[in-house]
Amino acid sequence: MPRRQLGRHLTELRERAGLTVRAAAKALERSTSTLWRYETGQVAIRSHEVELMCRVYGADAELTRALKALAGEGKNRGWWHAYGDVIPEGFDVFIGLEEAAEQLDIYESILVPGLLQTEQYARQIIEAGHPDKAPAEIERRVQLRVKRRSLLTRVISPPMVAVVLCEAVLRFPIGGHNTMAGQLRHLAEISELPNVKLTVVPFRAGLHQGLMAAQFTVLRFPLTGSGKPAEPTTIFADGYTGDLYLDREGEVAQYDAAFRNISSKALTEEESRRQILEMAENYEQG
Questions:
Q1: 65 shares a domain with 104
Q2: What average pLDDT does range 266-279 have in this prediction?
Q3: Is 242 a residue whose pLDDT tops 50?
Q4: From CA 218, how far away is CA 216, in angstroms rounded?
C-alpha cells in the first residue's frame, strides 16, 4: 500500500510538471516500463530514485523529504506511520485513500467520526488535540476536515458509507449543549442520504467487539478493468501519536468480523435516527 500511495503522488507530480511517461523516462534515464512499474506501485523505489524524480518534477524540499520517507515505508510488510515531523501538512495518506474508496465501514466509540463532524464540533476536537498550534493553523485544520464532508454528496460515484456509533458518542457533551445539538442534527440529516447507513449501538447492548476496538475504518476500493481491487482493502485506526494502516488478509478479516458483530448489536436505522434526534432535543433544552 505505501508503494501505491507513493506511485500516485509521483504520477501527480509528473503530470503537474507537464511530462508524459515517455518524456519523464528520458529525463530520468529510465525505461518507460520501469517508470510505469514505479507509478503503479509494483516495485519498491529507492529513496535516491525518489529524490531524482522529485528534482526532475520540481517538487519542493519538504515534499521530497516526505516522499522519501514514504519510500522507506514501502519496504515494510505492514506499516505504522506516525506523521509527526516526517510528513508535512497537506500530505495526508488517509484522505487520499478515503477519496479513492467505494465503500467505507466506520466504527466510533467515543467521538463523531471526522467525516461527519460539524465545523463547531471539529474545532473543539482539533483545539484539544493540538493545544500548541496557533489559531490560524487550527482554523486551517478545521476547514480541511469540513471539506472532507463533500465526499458524501459528490456527484460522481459517492462512496457507500456504513457508520456505527456507540451511544457514548451521542452523550459526551463536546463543546457544550449548542455544539452537540447542532452536531446531532447534522448526523440525523446525513443519515437520510441514500448512500449512508448510520446506526447506534445502545448501552443496553452490553459487551461487543467495538468496546475493545475503540475506533476504526474499513476502506474498500473499486475494481480495475482486470477485476482486481485498485487497492487492497485497508483498515485505518488513528491514534494519539500515529496512524495505523493494515492490509493483510488476516487483519482485514478480523476487523470485518468485528464490524459485523458491532453492527448486529445496533438499533435499526430508524430507531437510531430517532435516538439521535431525541438527544439533540435534550441538548437544546439544556
A1: no
A2: 98
A3: yes
A4: 7
Instruction: Give whichever of 21-25, 46-50, 165-169 has the largest mean pLDDT.
Output: 165-169
Q: CB neighbours of 141 closer than 8 A, spacing ≥ 6?
A: 126, 130, 133
> Is 251 within the bounds of a domain?
yes
The percent of residues in the chain predicted with pLDDT above 90, rounded, is 58
Banded model confidence at residue 91, pLDDT cuts 50, 70, 90: very low
Task: Output the DSSP codes for 216-257.
Answer: EEEEE--B-TTSSBSS--EEEEE-SS-EEEE--HHHHHHHHH
Identify residue 150 by its one-letter amino acid code. Answer: S
Q: What is the CATH number of the domain that holds 210?
A: 3.30.870
Whether the CB-CB separation of 220 and 183 falls below 8 Å is answered with no
DSSP codes, 96-134: HHHHH-SEEEEEESSS--GGG--HHHHHHHHHHH-TTS-
Where is pLDDT greater, at 81 or 63? 63
Q: What is the CATH number of the domain that holds 45?
A: 1.10.260.40
Separation between Cα atoms, residue 98 and residue 151, nearest integer Å: 8
Question: By C-alpha distance, which of 256, 252, 239 is closest to 80?
Answer: 239
Q: Retrieve residue 215's grid coordinates.
A: 475506533
pLDDT confidence bin for 143, thresholds 50/70/90? confident
Distance of CA 135 to the CA centre of its chain: 24
Q: CA 250, 251, 256, 262 torsion: positive or negative?
A: positive
Average pLDDT of every residue of the chain: 87
Cβ contacts of 179 within 8 Å, gap of 6 or more: 118, 120, 121, 124
